[in-house]
Amino acid sequence: MNRSDQILHAAEQCMRQKGFHQTSIQNIASQADVSIGLIYKYYQNKEAIIEALVTRVVQRMIALLNADFEQIAHAGGITHSAQDIVPPEVENSIVLLMEISSEATRNERIRQIMHDAWQVLKNNFIQQEQTLNPALDANMIHTRLYVMSLVIDGMIIRRCMKQRDVPASFMPFFDAITHDVNQHHGA
User: Fold this and answer.
1) Alpha helices in the chain (DSSP H)
2) Contact at 8 Å (CB) between 121 and 62?
3) pLDDT, tens only, 119-137
4) Which residue, 57, 79, 126, 127, could crosslink 84 as a Cys pair with Cβ 3.0–4.6 Å?
5) Which letter does DSSP use for residue 21 in this model?
6) Under 8 Å CB-to-CB from 62, ≥6 apart: which residues?
7) Cβ-contact 76, 147 below 8 angstroms
8) What is the dihedral of CA 96, 88, 61, 32, to 10 degrees?
């Protein structure tokens, strides 16, 4: 692992443990076992670290999502648990992005970084969906993305932040919604 990766890995660990606001350059340096000066050799400030970290997390998510895109995008009818909708590694990445997003309400640069990250994820979904189903119109693709995003974000907030399991009784309801979205637009 090169120094830049070492720093980003440490930043990710710190943010997962302490949250965005409690993570300082000093915490990252300590976690990475490098000097603060070395961090500034690679990154101008905390925002630059966040930008590189978000880019890294988004690329990791895209690789994971694309590996099993069809099952994730069209989960209706096969879901037995919330984990069937989103792989745990993707969920962990979404939680980290949500943590960083909390700063976007106060920091214009973080807001732009997160907007760009979500745009990359959205464009990837659209591209994968068009490849899988070339006959779908843009409205159908956007509807699927919107429904999946709402459900996934809500489930993650409920499970990870509120420490509440998604009830098993929700899964048939989710399957029905997914089926209706797919059928409504002639998929």
Assistant:
1) 3-18, 25-32, 36-42, 46-67, 69-73, 82-85, 88-101, 108-132, 138-156, 170-184
2) yes
3) 999 999 899 888 888 888 8
4) 79
5) T
6) 120, 121, 124
7) no
8) 50
Tens of pLDDT, residues 21-80: 899 999 999 999 999 999 999 999 999 999 999 999 999 999 988 887 766 555 544 555
Report the alpha-carbon angle 42-47-52, nearest 5: 55
Cα dist from 146 to 126, 129, 140, 149, whole Å:
11, 13, 10, 5
Q: How far is CA 68 from the centre of its chain?
A: 15
Cα–Cα distances (Å) from 109 to 105, 112, 113, 140, 146, in that order, read 10, 5, 6, 32, 25
* Angle at the Cα of 184 from the Cα atoms of 183 and 185, rounded to 5 degrees: 90
